[in-house]
Amino acid sequence: MVTFHVPWHQDERLTDESIPLPAGAVTVVPVLPAGTTWERLRALHDAVAERVAHQITDGDVPTVVSGDCLVALGTLAGVQRAGFDPGIVWFDAHGDVHTLDTTTSGYLGGLSLRLALGAHPDLAVNRPVDVDRALLVGARDLDPAEITYLDGATAPATRTVEDLGTLPDGPLVLHVDLDVIDAGALPGLRFPAPGGPSAAAVRAAMDEVLRTGRVAAIDLACPWHPAPSPQTQAERQDLLAHLTS
To answer: Does the keyword section mention Hydrolase (predicted)?
Structure first.
């Protein structure tokens, strides 16, 4: 199983060391065009999609590890380009279901899942996923507009890490934002959310999804600041080795 290392946070190139993956990961660092943030993001996600599609066509289940959730749009698009019509299981402490009209912070990562579901189709490289085939897991830090949306009739189902319930049918993209893990166990997150599950509980839930045999690609987001100490860096390296094995 190939792991793609995508050291980007939105359209900002991160250092390779910011995501301390085990040896053997294939780094994806395309040259992005001059232009708007969204033009640059589309180019990045398109490059990820091409790598993912090629790997799936070769019979692999690739893992994509990046610095933010927006890269999941490229992973999703790659699965679609390989001929699949996937659902999404989206682990995240946050909803990521804002639109450009509802976001109050302006943080683009907060739109990620909503873009996967078809909002602002001109900005994304993927085809929309039907909300009936999307599951949001572990979300606990939600803005009022996100709560309103998720309480509506046309929104993805929400579950806890400990109780996934019924998974979407068909092939799946498994996305895990590492901030779903309790912030006390993972220092340095950009948007820490207390009260979450342990890393072991998240891994167990991931394994439950993987045991379906229907996961076409795995996407891991590492939205953290540079490690404040060698100990934190070592802990991150161990965590990623555990989650990508």
So the answer is: yes
